[in-house]
Amino acid sequence: MTFFQLFILAIVQGITEFLPISSSAHLILLHEIGGPSADALALDVAVHLGSILAVVLYFRPDVVAAFAGLGHLAKRRESPQARLALGLVIATLPAVALGAVLALTGWIEHLRNATVIGWMMIVFGLLLYVAHRFSPEARPASDWRLRDALIMGLWQAVALIPGVSRSGITMTSARFLGFERHSAAKVAMLMSIPVTLATGGLLALKVLRSPVGLDLLRDAAIAAVLAFAAAYLALALMMKLLSRVSFTPYVIYRLILGVVLLVLAYS
Which residues make beta-bridge pairs with 139? Predict the structure, then answer.
């Protein structure tokens, strides 16, 4: 793969990972446009891990608190850190369980097509608009409870369907629960860390089962670094602007792209 192709792949992943517009849908479309590639899975793993490292770095105080909370849970010690860690565990389990079912049954591959992506972009774009338009903005991220974690975790599992958008569906569910825009995005990003690391780890094991050449390792490293840089900048900008910019532009983008995809699919 040329450097230009790596650059486009990494930048698209880095930018779309945290916006509610489905990064997986964009990656699938990029691979469709560029044609099938034996390296596609390995590069997808690289850009996903690169982008999630940006989340870890950006929210490092919360990540440190969650790790400390795991220790508190082991010692059965009550603390805000322990509640955060337990909440993240609870929020991750539904996606892991459903992901295992889809992978074992092979259904995950049947969902990777323009028709499914197009409809998911439209349906969940409209749902995001409803949540943003009609839900109160009253709760801070510090008010995230175990019940919220379970509800948002169930919604997050739905994002295994390409086009739904993991960040989009978790932000939508957080807004329905009454969280402020900034807080909804923060909780959604923290939830992305364990589930993305789990998914990336499983895919990495799949990649390592086949021979991996030095050229592929080099390309994967370049893609991961580029995705990290793009993701960190996109995340910092989004979190800074959320107090002034609504979710409406993302909804409009989803609707337009969804319609384009359906026109292409049905034609």
Answer: 179
CA separation (Å) from 156 to 170, 207, 260, 266?
6, 25, 25, 28
pLDDT in tens, 2-57: 788 788 888 888 888 888 888 777 776 776 666 555 466 677 778 888 999 999 99
Q: List Cα–Cα distances, 219 to 1, 4, 27, in angstroms.
A: 8, 11, 16
Round to whole Å and give the CA distance between 186 and 115. Answer: 31
Distances (CA, A) of 260 to 121, 181, 265: 11, 28, 9
65 beta partners: none
Our CA angle for 246, 83, 55, nearest 5°, is: 45
The DSSP symbol for 165 reads: -
- Sequence-separated contacts (24+) of 64-67 with Cβ below 8 Å: 66/190
Say what the pTM is.
0.87
Tell me, letter by letter, the H, E, C secondary structure of 175-244.
Answer: HHCCECHHHHHHHHHHHHHHHHHHHHHHHHHHHHCCCCCHHHHHHHHHHHHHHHHHHHHHHHHHHHHCCC
Which one-letter amino acid corresponds to residue 125?
G
| Residue 231 one-letter amino acid | A
DSSP assignment of 242-264: TTT--SHHHHHHHHHHHHHHHHH
Residue reference for tokens 């780890």 = 201
